[in-house]
């Protein structure tokens, strides 16, 4: 008989998230964000394939901080690197407003959801260009269902060797980040039963999900070279692991999250990822070994987090036990409280975590919008307004 994971009974006296004496990495690391959005027709509430046109319009104000994505249903907004999270938050909101105005010029709205709620989403209309054509040739029908939007957080880690070790330290927290940011319960007109359907569909790619534990920078380089040489990925930009050293910036890129429903959701993610990275750097420089959960347990924990979000129980990939997902999230936040305090982000994270515990993550709020009248149109309208309140549905 196969043994089942034991449910852990966490202690009742779990301390609140609180600061401690500053230690480790002293100066706040830089943080930058890339947000992907869907374009939606406000009348039909279905996705609209005008990404290149909307991006071209927005580029008049945003320049390199706007771009296209694999499908014409999508656009991307990017921030500059910041050390003050308040400045990053201001730029996030301003960027969303510019993209919303550019979309409105074509009678559309931007929607920050990890997956499209309504519309004919397979096969997707691909964005023109040689890279996307090469992707279609290599990955074929995998490209057909990739109308998925993520939020990528870049944290300044210039040393490639340290970046690889930081990746090892962050791996066990990936399921918690998935649960915290889940915002894709619907797909093409149906409730998938998952809080993050995007996580599940994205995991089909040959190099996606949690990265391996890397024994050294040389191990990372040799593996990447083999993946490219065997045609498994096109280049380093095609490494779709949830954590990766950026191939073109001196940063560690965390790519695990769904697109944030609100700017506040994205800012919370940015604060947490930066603190996780700073905490990992402190451990790396102290010579502390990274936890090494079994790959199959880490994958199982990510699946469970994508299914249940903040509700239900998390599978801790290190202890292999179940505990309430909210408790697991609080464990993570306590583990990074020193870094949050040093960065000046502790109060913000406390406030935003209280909000999520009360109102739920993006997936919970999408489903709450549906329950009012059992209407997916209401879900789309809610996402549009939450993405950028200046928009009307």
List the keywords.
alpha+beta; two-stranded antiparallel sheet; disordered N terminus; 393 residues; 13 strands
Q: What is the count of DSSP helices, taking H or I runs of 4+ residues?
A: 14
Radius of gyration: 20 Å
Please state roughly what percent of the residues sit in beta strands, choosing from under 5%, 5-15%, 15-25%, 25-35%, 35-45% or over 45%: 5-15%
Helix content: 40-55%
Main beta sheet, described? 7 strands, antiparallel
List the helices and strands in order.
EHEEHEHEHHEEHEHEEEHHEEHHHHH
**What is the average of the pLDDT values?**
91
Low-confidence stretches: 1-23
Give the oligomeric state of the chains in this entry, treating copies of one chain as homo and distinct chains as hetero.
single chain
How would you characterize this protein structure?
- The chain has 393 residues and is α+β, with helices and mostly antiparallel strands.
- The chain has 14 helices and 13 strands.
- Strand 8 (208-209), helix 7 and strand 9 form a beta-alpha-beta unit.
- The chain is globular.
- Residues 1-23 have low confidence and may be disordered.
What layout of secondary structure does this protein have?
Elements: E1 31-40, H1 51-62, E2 66-68, E3 74-78, H2 85-104, E4 109-111, H3 130-139, E5 150-156, H4 160-170, H5 174-181, E6 186-187, E7 190-191, H6 197-202, E8 208-209, H7 217-229, E9 240-241, E10 243-245, E11 251-258, H8 263-285, H9 295-308, E12 313-315, E13 322-324, H10 325-335, H11 337-343, H12 346-359, H13 362-373, H14 376-387
Parallel strand pairs: 8-9
Antiparallel strand pairs: 1-3, 1-4, 1-5, 2-3, 5-11, 6-7, 10-11, 12-13
